[in-house]
Design brief:
The protein is mainly beta. The chain contains no helices and eleven strands. The protein is about 0% helix and about 55% strand. Strands 2, 4, 5, 6, 9, 10 and 11 form a seven-stranded mixed beta sheet that branches. Strands 1-3-8-7 form a four-stranded antiparallel beta sheet, with no helix packed on it.
Length: about 120
């Protein structure tokens, strides 16, 4: 397993910015992609942004142009720069690592962080 630790959440006013971090430790060689998900009270968890080992990215339509996902391979850390925040962005944000490699006989494994709360006030 790869421990994932999120940080950077907090309370911010609408229009403000936050930068979330997700640090991976341990054996990270099998990580093929990482992503940010969020879950608001009473709603299902949804994909916010995803980045592959080749640095291809995808975003939810609701955050395009406002959020930017990136990763620092040397430090095994993923980031989510969140700008122009809206109250509807309020949620617990989770980091996910996707593990898929020959060493584990191509078994697909998802590793989740504990989540960090982002609250955007109007």
């Amino acid at each position: 397993q790869v421990p994932l630790v999120e940080s950077g959440g907090g309370l911010v006013q609408a229009g403000g910015s936050l930068r979330l971090s997700c640090a991976a430790s341990g054996d990270t060689i099998c990580i093929s992609a990482m992503g940010w998900y969020r879950q608001a009270p009473g709603k299902e968890r949804e994909l916010v942004a995803r980045i592959t080992s080749g640095d291809s990215t995808k975003y939810a339509d609701s955050v395009k142009g406002r959020f930017t996902i990136s990763r620092d391979n040397a430090e095994n850390t993923m980031y989510l720069q969140m700008n122009s925040l809206k109250p509807e962005d309020t949620a617990v944000y989770y980091c996910k690592a996707e593990k898929y490699c020959k060493a584990t006989m191509w078994t697909y494994v998802e590793v989740w962080g504990q989540g960090t709360l982002v609250t955007v006030s109007s």
